[in-house]
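Blackboard transcription, Thursday session:
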Amino acid sequence: MTAFRIPGKGRVNHDTAVRFRFDGKSYGGVEGDTVASALLANGVHLMGRSFKYHRPRGPVTAGSEEPNALIGTSRGKGRFEPNTRATVQEIYDGLKAESQNKWPSLNFDIGAVNDRLYMLFSAGFYYKTFMWPKSFWDRVYEPVIRAAAGLGVSPSEPDPDSYASRYLHCDVLIVGAGPAGLAAALTAGRSGSDVVIVDEHTEMGGTLLSEDQVQIAGQSAWDWLSATLDELKGMNNVRLMTRTTAIGYYHQNMVALSQKLTDHLAAVPGNAPRERMWRVRANQVVLAQGAIERPLVFDGNDRPGVMFAGAAQTYLNRYGVKVGERAVIVTSHDSAWYCAFDLADAGVAVAAIADTRDEIAPEFAQMAADKGIEVLKGHTVSSTTGRLRVKSVLVNPVRNGKVGASRTIDCDALLMCGGWTPSLHLFSHTKGSLNWDSEAEVFLPGDKTEACHIAGAGRGLWGIARALEDGANAGSEAAIAAGYATEVGLYPVEADRTGGGVTHKELPSDRDAGKAKAFIDFQNDVTAKDIRLAVREGMRSIEHVKRYTTNGMATDQGKLSNMNGLTIAADAVGKEAPKVGLTTFRPPYTPTSFGTFAGYHKDAHFELTRKTPIDGWAEENEAAFEPVSLWRRAWYFPLSGEDMHRAVARECKATRQSLGMFDASTLGKIEVSGPDAVEFMNRMYTNPWTKLAAGRCRYGLLLGEDGYIRDDGVIGRLSQDKFHVTTTTGGAARVLNMMEDYLQTEWPDLKVWLTSTTEQWATIALNGPNARKLIEPFVEGQDLSEEAFPHMSVSECKVAGIPARLFRISFTGELGFEINVPARYGRELWEKLYEAGQQYDVCPYGTETMHVLRAEKGYIIVGQDTDGTVTPDDAGIGWAVGKKKPDFVGMRSLKRPDLVAEGRKQLVGLLTDDPKTLLEEGAQIVADPKQPIPMKMIGHVTSSYWSEALGRTIALAVVEGGRSRMGESLHIPMPDRVLSAKVTETVFYDPEGERLKA
Amino acid sequence: MNVQNPIQFEPITAAHSGPVELTILPEATRFNLRIDPAGLAAASTAFGVDLPERIGGWAESATRSAICLGPDEWVLLAEETDRQAIEASFAGIYSDVPHSLTDISDREIAIEITGDRAAELLTVACPRNLDAIAPGSGVRTLFDSAQVVLYRDTSDKFRIEVWRSFFPHVWELLIIANKELASGL
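(Written on the board underneath:)
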């Protein structure tokens, strides 16, 4: 048994010893301990160093709001976590924890010199101190500040743990399982509604865990708690979740829960996730989050051993741990008196209770007298002493606003209470309004934006009786709103600890305020004088004060500091607190690991990757891949020793000389079907479709309302009423959405329907002079001769016995066919054609060769040669726009003055003066390279490749007035030199198109 | 014709990765039927199943079934060998009741999910309230980032139909989650 543990007391399991290490030293605790409670049981308060001044710090709370006791924990390789709150982390056998922000050791830390230099580190110091010389910022100041500040060290190894996600739907979600939450759960659960109740702690009970003296409905608090939990667990409509924090409250009652599953276990089951994110959609939400104790602001209020009275009470009653041997209480609220009494009863010497108030309840004075505790009414604290642990406190009487002489009282624990702040974080996420209660000087929930109910101390109610009653009512309201009939139970309470208190700005002192280290934000080392300095320097809004001083900007989001910061800022500004404002709380409520947010999205499952039916063949044949929207596509097929340039040159050459094959399955496909299909096509696309015969294809161009090119593709008319539309790979979903949008909102009268068939078909493109020879023996039901099946034909026939849609089209300028077969047959057909193609030295090629071959022909790629500001005429494909059509999407915009103006950027070819020079895609083009900088840029390169067929480089570019510049020399300034190129037509290869007719 | 295994990284077998049985169902005939609800009676006759009028409704005969996914949208499921017969049957009513009947048999892959914890397994990635999906109905929804059609056959038997290229992502996640269920945490 450790020195400060009281045998048998509390809810921990005294019979099960647990050993763990902190800063390399082995400590003993018991099952149920947190790192903080176990260390305190060993008499250790010093657990870390502060952020800026490296001041020694110990735990100030017993919960998730802890700003000081942040530690690193490690569970093996890759499983280091910084900034874990020692007050939350449960111990288990073998746990390794370490303190942070210290060097060389926690007891002796060089960085603590900052504490002596505090004058340098006042509010906004980095805006002032490190301004000159300017060049020092990047090289000296910032690196030094970054190295000196900060708390834990970021993990440097990949996280080997897995993380999980779930969706959950319920009638009533209850956040917080203290008396209010439990009473709400009983009411809602008994009504039959689906209830989920969550609590961030290891066990449910909230305040009841620390207040075992209360009698509820004739039972002791812990018996009642146990019976209540048993009843709730017995209801199959109630789900209880511990170690689960509601971290965010989003629209339409979507609440995110972060559940810790394994961090408390010595042995973790296989495949078990470390944490799980629950996305709960609740019909009704009950927020029963309670209240958070508020620090008193005085010089030296941050020494190890100075903590909340409520925390000391929790350590005592829940964990059976005395936080010291000789305690002094300083308070402005009645609650701390009970802490004093509990400590005294447990054998702790309570030297004094200093209350800032002049009036206190006579029964308190009587009880204090009975227990031999000195009572100091109307007192303030002016300072504390002690280096690694508080040694004494200086208390002064305050009479009529005048601070009297100080008196020193020795203590090893100074327990403070400056009141209680209702926890409004989740309510604040909903953007619900807050009302200022000027009497209690707290913000309370106001108008709601979501179906939520706030119960208990979270709305300023004090005492267990009121929490139970309010919780029961809130549970009832919620269940009724969810459609259930309820009966509200009664919970008579005895030995309740009610009371009230007042709040303060900095406590009055007889010492020099300029030298006081009276902390408001323990985690960011912000003091009261920092706030006042910020106001003196012109900050008026709390939002500005916050950013200037960093008050409330640490990971605890100001749970302890916001109200004190606001009170002091309001005092300095000379306005009421609500006029200065409260900063907005944002999710997550407590620090949450990235893993929990990422969930299953890691490693191979990081992002959905679409693969074609032929992808496996490409992989087996060692293709290089590139991502194209969500797809991965074969980029090129390098033979051994080939780089991309040589592989692509070979693929291009083989295709133009004999035969290439290409997996075009990713092309978007949409079946447009119905009696009004042709009318629909006429309205959507720029081209005329009425006269296109069944069995024939046409290049289709799709514009947006603005007249700019959105998508393109070859479209086949299968029958009078049916079109097979193809889109770009990336545009498939977008085009279908756009079509559906028009159909449903503009033309609901049209009898035509759309179906995505992208994945119904695997598509194999065959290009090259031998393409026909290869497929002819496989095709049944279609004569492939030039006469019967000319360029731009489509047929439903059979290929290798498989029902197919066969297109004669070309994106290469060679004789070309595209065979669509049901996806399941894609790879089989590919392999058959590849095998049969050996006689023609068939060459599988990837997207890069496809790009080169089409560029040689001047065929555009939407999104590469167009950028959302290119009209059909700009792209040189004005011929695709039906001149006699009454309307189509974008037609009116094409007549806008700026779209018909002279000098628009037009797509042209560029041939560099040096045929070996490859332009950079995206490079800017100028007319005169000698003009002064900034030069006038008249266009940019959109496509640029080595053309094996031409034995030189080629490029496409958009250039102002490009088509009137044929033959003109233009210039492309690059970082090291200026390149020159001549403007040409866009078709570089076979401009007459003879090869298509082969 | 020898049917190509559509799944390149996993054989077509039940995946015993955890308490829930995961099975890739054999190829079937699927049509996307788009039709004005006024023509529903004729379409029902053509298909041989009374097409459900409510979105989410799922009607079955011995070998065929139909689910309503939108105000004018149905998916028809049938045996692999019935494709041409169904096409012929609908072609017969086209002039009177125009519609779109599009073969999507190969667009999708179907997964059957069976077991006491099947619904729990689906909650890893399906945002819908599964309790609100009665046995004998279905919905178009998301599974993680993939669009799926989710059918509920009985309280502990589901079927997911997912586009072919989204299938590996969905299948992999089902297996990860099934292992997670087996871990007990």
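Lecturer's comment: The first helix of chain A runs from residue 35 to 41.
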